[in-house]
Amino acid sequence: MFEKHFDFTQTPFGKDIPTSALFSSRAYRELTEKLRYAVERAQMMCLTGDIGAGKSTAIRAVAQQLSSALFKFIYVPNPVMAIREMYRDLLRELQIDPPWATSEARRRLRETFCSLRQEGQIPVLVIDEAHCLSPSVLEELRMLTNFEMDAYPVFSLILSGHPELSRTLARRGNEALAQRLTLRYHLIGLDREETKAYVAHHTKLAGVVRPVFTEDAVVHLFQFSQGIPRRINALALRGLEIAYLQGVQTVDGNIMELATSETIY
């Protein structure tokens, strides 16, 4: 709707942009370095951050950067599940018929992980929205990692979730699993200057080099988004829509104030 008005060649602030075109903030660079370290050394990591901070995006970027011949990424699609369902989905993703018994499924997954490792491929188990995991599933993950030997780690485990994930792992009963998560990172939002650069980066990706958002608009955008990329995207898109409806070529502070009063994210 507003794309032609601003001379965009595509809709800006989209979700499905190539990983090579992602905006690289300081925190994003730190996170991808830690993720690569965890994956390449078959370590276990706890990643936390607010909704829309870019956790899944960073994991996706690292997965695409690494060779599929050396690393096998396995994703848990739905963390709100029973233990048997978790093993069923994992084994099916590995093209293995899942047995009915949980103990047998655990043994089968362990054997598969060991076989992949011996063949030169590191299994990487990624559990997104891990703050939703039940105590029984967390205990099962502890049992799954029991066969790990310090001299020869078999697979990498990445638990990614909201900040409450850290509090969950700190609870009594989760100490053993928490101790195995030797790497931890909390992804923060962009700072003010990064927010300005992020906005310019996305409008440029959409084909417009000139400033579309005024300084006041960017300040307002940063204050209300707290530098969280998903919030920035939603607010910026609403600002562009309002500017189009008003027939103006730039998004100023007044427009962004109106956008923030209307947008739910």
TrEMBL record:
Going by the entry's taxonomy, the superkingdom of the source organism is recorded as: Bacteria
Checking InterPro entries in the record gives: AAA+_ATPase (IPR003593), AAA_22 (IPR049945), ExeA_AAA_ATPase_DNA-bind (IPR052026), P-loop_NTPase (IPR027417)
Q: Which CDD domains match?
A: AAA (cd00009)
Give one Pfam family: AAA_22
GO MF entries: ATP hydrolysis activity
What SMART domains does the entry give? AAA
AAA+ ATPase domain residues are 41-183
User: Mind telling me which PANTHER family this protein's record contains?
Assistant: GENERAL SECRETION PATHWAY PROTEIN A-RELATED, PHOSPHORIBULOKINASE _ URIDINE KINASE FAMILY
Name used for this protein in its record: AAA+ ATPase domain-containing protein
